[in-house]
Write a structure and sequence with these properties.
By secondary structure, the chain is of the alpha+beta class. Helices cover about 45% and strands about 25% of the residues. The protein contains nine helices and nine strands. Strands 1, 2, 3, 4, 5, 6, 7, 8 and 9 form a nine-stranded antiparallel beta sheet that branches. A hairpin with a 2-residue loop joins β2 and β3. The longest helix is centred in the first third of the chain and has 17 residues. It starts with a helix and ends with a strand.
Length: about 280
């Protein structure tokens, strides 16, 4: 079969293939938009709408409801002074995204408002959709990078990391020398730092006072309060004194540094007490 015949066959096959008419595409766009209004969290539907809208020539116009919501959101932005004000803008731009779920501008505005309202997960979701609707936009990409940074440094992210850190210490034991024949140690249990005490079993020795030849350690029991870990720190507070524990990285392991807190002049004065080293 020569090249001319192959070309003619290909053209004939293309001509006979079913084509989706623009009118049918717009009907499909309307149907998907109606589905999104019933399921606003369905990002798969939103992605399909965005892809369909990008294939339409000319691009679908913004419905009047989307324009109205954008204007209301812009008014909320002008008067925004704190996170709660920005949430009003978020509500308006979110409503606009239901009316025009294919619009990159709508998603971008929504992402900006969510970022200002400290809803970083929501902002990243909106900016991801904005990039699909407006590929190649440097403004959207730059804002997404900035939001990623703010999310990583947010108090919520630090709290989440602290909880993961504490969970990773469950069952870990920290020991410190105390006195001859007496051992003090800390153990992490259910997110708390528990202080326990051990004593060596006596043995017959040449010198009755010589505890260095004592037998195996026997647990005596708790000798201090259970202190809840807040990330890498824990404090036991009393009226004029207290104890602070700080967990620090020490090479490939961790140590716990204990401080006695004495209070005068309404100021805590920590005094280094002892260091507990991780043994398991």
């Amino acid at each position: 079969m020569n090249a001319a015949l192959v070309l003619s066959v290909s053209l004939a096959a293309a001509a006979s293939a079913p084509q989706v008419k623009p009118a049918a595409k717009r009907e499909r766009l309307d149907a998907l938009t109606a589905q999104i209004q019933k399921a606003p969290s369905d990002d798969a539907l939103r992605r399909e709408v965005i892809a369909l809208a990008r294939a339409l020539k000319p691009a679908p116009a913004l419905p009047e409801e989307a324009k109205r919501r954008l204007a209301r959101g812009a008014a909320a932005v002008k008067g925004a002074k704190d996170a709660s004000d920005w949430k009003l803008a978020v509500d308006e731009f979110a409503a606009a995204s239901l009316a025009a779920p294919w619009s990159g501008d709508v998603y971008y505005n929504l992402g900006v408002a969510q970022d200002k309202a400290a809803d970083f997960d929501g902002a990243l979701r909106s900016l991801t959709l904005a990039e699909l609707a407006s590929p190649g936009s440097e403004d959207i990409k730059t804002l997404r990078y900035e939001v990623e940074f703010r999310k990583e440094k947010s108090p919520e992210a630090r709290t989440r990391k602290d909880k993961e850190f504490v969970r990773g210490l469950e069952g870990v034991r920290y020991e410190t020398p105390w006195t001859s024949g007496l051992g003090m140690y800390l153990k992490v249990s259910d997110g708390q730092l528990v202080q326990l005490q051990e004593r060596r079993e006596p043995r017959v020795c040449l010198c009755a006072e010589d505890n260095r030849c004592g037998g195996p350690l026997r647990e005596v029991g708790e000798c201090g309060a259970r202190v809840t870990l807040n990330g890498r720190k824990a404090e036991e507070r009393r009226t004029q004194a207290g104890t602070r524990y700080e967990i620090a990285e020490d090479g490939e392991t961790t140590t716990v540094r204990e401080y006695f807190l004495s209070k005068w002049d309404d100021v805590d004065h920590p005094m280094d007490a002892r260091v507990y080293k991780r043994v398991r």
